[in-house]
Amino acid sequence: MRLLNTKSLQFEQFFDSQIPKYAILSHRWGDDEVTFQEFRKGTKQDGQGYDKVIECCVVADSQGFQWVWIDTCCIDKKSSAELSEAINSMYRWYEGAAECYAYLSDVTWDIENREASKLAFQASVWFTRGWTLQELLAPHKVMFFDREWKSFGTKRDLSKEISAVTGISVDHMESQSSACVATKMSWASSRATSRLGDMAHCMLGLFDVNMPLLYGEGKKAFVRLQLEIIRKSDDEAVFAWTSSRVSHGLLAPWPTCFAQSGDIKVHASLKKKRFPYLMTNQGLEFEVPCRGPFFFSSGGKVKWDQSKDRLSLALNCWKEGAKGPLAVTIILARHGTTWQREGCDKLELSKSVRGSVSSNGGGKYTIPIHIHQQRL
Question: How many other C-beta atoms lie within 10 A of the C-beta of residue 358?
Answer without folding.
Answer: 12
